Amino acid sequence: MTRTIVIGGGIVGASAAFRLADSGNDIVLVDRQDPGHATAAGAGIIAPGTSQRPLPAFYPFAADAVRYYPELVARLAELDAGDTRYEVVGKLLVATNENEFERLPAIQQVMERRRQEGMPNLGTTSLVSAEEARSMFPALGDVAGAIHVPEAARVDGASVRDAMVMGARKRGATILQGEARLLQGTDDGAVVEVEGTTHAVDRVIVAAGCWTNRFLEPIGVSVPVAPQKGQIMHIGMGETTTSRWPIVGTFGDQYILTFGPNRVVCGATRETGSGYDLRTTPGGLQSVTNEALRVAPGLANGTVEEVRVGLRPLSDDGLPFIGEIDGHRSVIVATGHGPSGLQLGPWSGVIAADLALGMQPSSAISAFAVGR
Q1: pLDDT tens-digit readout, 246-265
Q2: Contact 4/335 with Cβ under 8 angstroms?
Q3: CB half-sphere exposure, 225, CA atoms < 13 A
Q4: Per-residue pLDDT for 43 more than 90?
Q5: Do residues 65 and 347 touch, judged by C-beta distance below 8 A?
Q6: Which of 45, 67, 177, 320 is the most buried (most CB within 10 A)?
Q7: Per residue in 148-158, pLDDT tens?
Q8: pTM of the full predicted structure?
Q9: Counting beta carbons within 10 angstroms of the beta carbon of residue 41, is it exposed (0 to 12), middle (13 to 18) or buried (19 or more)?
Q10: Which residues, including other chains, have CB under 8 Å from residue 333's CB and lie 6 or more apart?
């Protein structure tokens, strides 16, 4: 049995803890519960095959990550660990003008190629008219058309994290809240202090998001990850049922998605260089509101229920860090997922857990090496 301590209770750390506990290992999960958890703020689109990111190493890993979601959701349901709010609802990539509309066929071809190569959560895509798009998402405005992606899914970050933490607890994990300090991390083992109690462990998984470098500082290691602020708006639509409305994506960075019975989520800003600023700002709200109403003016009479602010751990090259640290191989880092945390996070936690157990990773992770 391997004794492991996981630092960080977001979606990556929760997944690692659940994986280790569910396979019968001795596991402690520690979280300081800082304000600004990206996981708690986020609502995720689980359909990387629709992405237009120019990062080739992203897609094979993302395919494995999305393929894992149904297995994870089913296992958590077996354990009665709580609702993950993962659901296949489809996605519309909307064109808001004729120039964007002319680009849709080429984008659809890319999606179809990815589907044929095995990318999940796409299904057979189709070009749909503005009228067809509005029949699926009635709040849409005067769009030019869209690509419909029938098997795209969405998830609520806090819900899936809470379910994994509960699953880990049910499988014997110890869950602690407090400050963790790395006292020692060698190739042979690590020592971590949590609120005055010392834990000698075989492995430590550092999944502390944009706070990762603070934990690694005692061993003189850092990774190029910085907080990127995101502001995301939740709108209540009164008597309108939004449960089955699809995700809406555009040619920009922001999105719209829904949860039942009547919640619409719009955002999120990508405020690179924000530092640890957690303020809700007029500029952020303007950005989210303007984009949401540009695409879906039918949301204008909804009620702003809340605005969430989270800090994404953004790496300098857009790819996560997952792997052991040379010279400190008892320490495994899993961070830097940026805007893809809810897509990649559960699988990244699995890979980190497997590394802690000395197993060969099930996905290629050389592009995500610490120290690259």
Answers
A1: 999 999 999 999 999 999 99
A2: no
A3: 32
A4: no
A5: yes
A6: 320
A7: 999 999 999 99
A8: 0.97
A9: buried
A10: 206, 212, 216, 223, 321, 322, 323, 324, 325, 370
For residues 178-197, one letter each, b for 16 or more C-beta atoms within 10 angstroms of the residue's C-beta and e for the rest, the string is eebbbebbeeebbbbebeee
Amino acid at 355: L
Q: What are phi and psi of 311, to 5 degrees?
A: -115, 105
Domain ranges for the chain, please list them: 3-44+158-225+317-368, 87-152+226-314
Contacts of 190 (CB under 8 A, 6+ apart): 5, 182, 184, 200, 201, 202, 203, 204, 330, 331
| Helices and strands (H and E) in the chain: how many | 9, 21
Contact present, 363 and 64 (Cβ < 8 Å) = yes
Closest by CA to 59, choosing from 120, 126, 147, 146, is 120
* CATH homologous superfamily, domain 87-152+226-314: D-Amino Acid Oxidase, subunit A, domain 2 (3.30.9.10)
CATH for 3-44+158-225+317-368, among 3.90.180.10, 3.40.50.1820, 3.50.50.60, 3.30.465.60?
Answer: 3.50.50.60
Pair 192, 4: CB distance under 8 Å: no
Mean pLDDT of the chain: 97
| Cα separation, 196 vs 23, whole angstroms | 29
